[in-house]
């Protein structure tokens, strides 16, 4: 066995969830509908028949879930707020739902009593349906950013005395592309998906992306101006994005394709949110080159806001997997959203990017994770918190509970990814300050329904019984050993 790779002694770690995936209680205590309620009840189903009506019933069982967090040794817990629980109709002049506020107060207070730090995501995909109906939701750049700012302010006002760590948006790329290009996620708009009845893949994702960038900026600006001075917290954003290796490592065009793919994945949001002013541009140049006027411009006034709002405290990274990218010839299609490349899990020589997991899009790729961490840190220069990382085990969707809790694949996945973090910190000089495993428990995996299990806790969806998997306590041991190793070496 190789010696334990260290992690910084003050490394923050825990588990993550998101409101719609775990809460249930969708009609309780005045909650308004979100676009996911609508999407999950479409006929024919676009979510394998699954919906979040009950989910893990976390709304009623959060104490039991937090007992697990305590048992697992978590120092921090990342969860999201349901906008339509707090403001059922969503808008800036719409009433606040005190019962929704009370629920999140109970959650926050229970975590603090346990000595667990709450990390709060404002938006994890569940736009109030009323805003979608009223003005097209994220398709309306002007309206949506104003409503998001007001929602953010309500959250800082009501919870910011106790919540110090804020994440504005979870994965704006997935919101834009899955929601408005492929139509695989709510609100399911697309012009290339036969199940979709409305949408325009050539324009809508880029409009929605701008609405999300501006919404993020306004929420950051509001925090920095009006709340940071007294609350002294931190704010950031969680971006997804795989690492890409060239399909043919001898072909410069494939090397360029891999970089371009990452610009379309990460740079789209990271440049305007984090660095654009230092490069003198808003979006990555390759995006402007390919998309032209379909990529919305920022006005001078908007640029000024972006410039001011790039003072955020951390880069939240959601990392699951990596792929190979191969360049395409000819001219890009108007519905292309990945930079005119093809992506593969095997390279030209047939070498797999990593071990297959329990879901088709995810192979275990720790060495690419290390490269990804170094690339993102040295490019965007913010301390990184890994806000999601995890996997389903091969075949886990068909396993009994007894089989599923013996999750050796997941234990190895975590070990390998923690080793990659150590290497990125101590060998590549990246600043990485925390880690959240996805997820505390099996939950509604969006359009994949309940079959794909990412939890460290097994969920019996009939009885709602929770059973810890081996990985839950294994993670605790891994973190303890790694942080102890750091103290011993004095690093
Ligand atoms: C993230 N992909 O989504 C989300 O933030 C979570 O809510 C979700 O449960 C988790 O990852 C696991 O999927 C993603 O297809 C969904 O590449 C799909 C992809 C990436 C991230």
From TrEMBL:
Which Gene Ontology terms cover its molecular function? cellobiose glucosidase activity
Q: Which PANTHER family match?
A: GLYCOSYL HYDROLASE, LP05116P
Which controlled-vocabulary keywords does the entry list?
Glycosidase, Hydrolase
- State the organism's lineage: Eukaryota, Fungi, Dikarya, Ascomycota, Pezizomycotina
- InterPro entries assigned: GH, GH_1_N_CS, Glyco_hydro_1
**According to the UniProt entry, what is the EC number of this protein?**
3.2.1.21
Task: Give the protein's function.
Answer: Plays an important role in cellulose degradation. Shows hydrolytic activity against several glycosidic compounds.
Protein name, per record: beta-glucosidase
Q: GO:BP terms for this protein?
A: cellulose catabolic process
The UniProt entry's sequence similarity note says:
Belongs to the glycosyl hydrolase 1 family.
* Enzyme class label: hydrolase
**Record field: catalytic activity:** Hydrolysis of terminal, non-reducing beta-D-glucosyl residues with release of beta-D-glucose
């Amino acid at each position: 066995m190789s010696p334990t790779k260290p992690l910084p002694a003050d490394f923050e770690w825990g588990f993550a969830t998101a409101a719609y995936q775990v809460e249930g209680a969708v009609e309780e205590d005045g909650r308004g509908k979100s676009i996911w309620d609508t999407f999950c009840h479409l006929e024919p189903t676009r979510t394998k028949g699954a919906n979040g009506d009950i989910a893990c019933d976390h709304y009623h069982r959060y104490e039991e879930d937090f007992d697990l967090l305590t048992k697992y040794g978590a120092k921090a817990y990342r969860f999201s707020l349901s906008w339509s629980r707090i403001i059922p109709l969503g808008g800036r002049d719409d009433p606040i739902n005190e019962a929704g506020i009370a629920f999140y107060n109970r959650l926050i207070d229970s975590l603090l009593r346990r000595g667990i730090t709450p990390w709060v995501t404002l938006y994890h995909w569940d736009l109030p349906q009323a805003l979608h109906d009223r003005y097209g939701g994220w398709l309306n750049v002007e309206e949506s950013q104003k409503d998001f700012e007001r929602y953010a302010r309500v959250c800082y006002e009501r919870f910011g005395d106790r919540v110090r760590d804020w994440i504005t948006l979870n994965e704006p790329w997935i919101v834009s592309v899955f929601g408005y290009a492929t139509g695989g996620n709510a609100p399911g708009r697309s012009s290339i998906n036969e199940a979709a009845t409305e949408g325009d893949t050539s324009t809508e994702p880029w409009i929605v992306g701008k609405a999300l960038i501006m919404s993020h900026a306004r929420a950051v600006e509001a925090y920095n101006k009006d709340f940071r001075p007294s609350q002294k917290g931190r704010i950031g954003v969680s971006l997804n994005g795989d690492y890409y290796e060239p399909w043919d490592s001898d072909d410069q065009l494939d090397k360029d394709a891999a970089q371009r793919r990452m610009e379309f994945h990460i740079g789209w949001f990271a440049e305007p949110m984090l660095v654009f002013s230092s490069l003198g541009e808003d979006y990555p140049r390759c995006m402007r080159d390919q998309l032209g006027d379909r990529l919305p411009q920022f006005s001078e006034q908007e640029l000024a806001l972006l410039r001011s709002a790039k003072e955020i405290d951390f880069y939240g990274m959601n990392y699951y997997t990596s792929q190979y990218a191969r360049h395409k010839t000819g001219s890009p299609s108007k519905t292309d959203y990945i930079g005119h490349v093809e992506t593969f899990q095997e390279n030209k020589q047939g070498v797999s990017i990593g071990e297959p997991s329990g879901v088709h899009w995810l192979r275990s790729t720790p060495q690419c994770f290390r490269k990804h961490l170094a690339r993102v840190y040295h490019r965007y220069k913010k301390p990184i918190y890994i806000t999601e990382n995890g996997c389903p085990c091969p075949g886990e969707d068909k396993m009994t509970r007894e089989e599923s809790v013996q999750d050796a694949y997941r234990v190895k996945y975590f070990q390998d990814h923690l080793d990659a973090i150590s290497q990125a910190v101590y060998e590549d000089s990246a600043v990485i300050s925390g880690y959240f495993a996805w997820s505390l428990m099996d939950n509604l995996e969006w359009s994949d329904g309940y079959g794909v299990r990412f939890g460290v806790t097994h969920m019996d969806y009939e009885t709602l019984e929770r059973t810890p998997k081996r990985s839950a306590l294994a993670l605790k041991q891994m973190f303890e050993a790694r942080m102890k190793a750091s103290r011993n070496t004095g690093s």
